[in-house]
Design goal:
The protein folds into 2 domains: about 190 residues, no CATH class; about 45 residues, no CATH class. About 35% of the residues lie in helices and about 20% in strands. It is built from 7 helices and 11 strands. The strands form 4 sheets. A 4-stranded mixed β-sheet has the order 1-8-9-2. Helix 4 packs parallel to helix 6. It binds zinc ion.
Amino acid sequence: MVVIFSLLSPNVTAILYIQYTPGTGRMAQLQTINFDWWRDPKGYRIVREKPWGHRIVRKGHPREKLELCRPLDPTDSLFRVFANIGTSPKGLLDFVNRHGPLTLTGNDQGDPVGHVAWHARVMQDLLKSVSADRQQTSLAEKFNGAPAVTFDAMVVWDPVAKAAKWELRPRSLLDGLWLQFGQAVTRGANIRTCAHCGAWFETGAGTGRRLDSKFCSDEHRIAFNSLKRSKEK
Ligand SMILES: [Zn+2]
């Protein structure tokens, strides 16, 4: 059975949907994201063409083969990399060279830089607000401004858990990144900014970092403190 969710209402709907988990456990069981994607083994470059402005297009000829990739498999926080570096054209090009284009037509018409950079800015802004203050009344308003996510959902059998579960299939890498974002902000973990490197990381139960951690890793806590000591001398 394939259920198509076309979420035309603001992203809050998608996030609320993701948050919904039957059962009572405190640790939400996350839906699996299943995502096949295609990238050009020759890489990508930025072109400027009127009237579209800057686009990120593939280097290979349209008839040349693309290679299959699964950019969302190695980590459930690729969205953080995107929010960190995707706001600049150079950062976006880096990201696309590694993980493939962001939009459905990225391998044909190219990714429009202005449009995808806007997504990165919105995501970055939301992450900053969430990590800064969870009591903020303006958060609801901010989430209203977030884009909708499009994906297919399928019920599959999980042989390990011996239970049926939802499997989410994003339409594009950009949709997949928003899904990952939704899973991270709705599972109850706190998101903070590392005082040493500025990267976002999760704290609290199940994340490996204490709720009040200021650093993404022990290495960065140590690096930060030794830098501070050498400055004080
Ligand atoms: Zn760090």
